[in-house]
């Protein structure tokens, strides 16, 4: 029997007062300015810096940025997103590492749109939700309850049917079980049912468009950098059947996930495990970069 979550009434969904109580106990743990913007803004020398909005909680502190390379007619359009869940560090830093070190290799080959940190408040607080206790990665829907998600949807809307690839960079952490899933159960007035955090990298494909060869190409590339998560004793990863080595599938559009915001042929969500005793932070970032490169290379080879 797990202890009740300290906010709300067990069995009852949170009301506005509960959500405000949750918000009040959140504290700043790191700086978006120092860790993200300090790496984004210098990229304006080589990329077009697109300010596509700001968070209403503090617009000056939380501007939203995307970066474009020099788009050329006839090249495939690819979207890379990170930090939809702000606490998932390698998604943000991996996207930035790719921009600083690897994106140049795709100049004249791919039209890139990279959004390194979709949820900057979540990055500072190290939390899955936004200030209103809303999960951005279940909110990529019409009339989104998440301003982070709504801003990204507006950014990509003019090109929604033009994207050929979208890779969304995430992590699965130990705090998913110690904090975020218990908080979710409490918020929704449900019982918390513990699960097992997989030790290693895995992918979430689209059950409506699985693209098995594409997923395999990414797993094969990442496996050279870090270990791939094995299935649990039921053959699952986080409750979903493993459909091939290191891959599970979700109906991404139906669930309002970021990976479903375009009509791209090739879509996937990466999941890195930063708490593994067998991986370092640098290795986690490198795994994200390897995944991006493998995705782009597969797309180019299969145009």
From TrEMBL:
The family this protein is said to belong to: Belongs to the peptidase M14 family.
Species classification: Bacteria, Pseudomonadati, Pseudomonadota, Gammaproteobacteria, Alteromonadales
Organism: Shewanella amazonensis (strain ATCC BAA-1098 / SB2B)
InterPro entries documented for this protein: DUF2817 (IPR021259), Peptidase_M14 (IPR000834)
GO biological process, one term: proteolysis
Peptidase M14 domain residues: 28-303
Protein known as: Peptidase M14 domain-containing protein
GO molecular function: hydrolase activity, acting on ester bonds; metallocarboxypeptidase activity; zinc ion binding
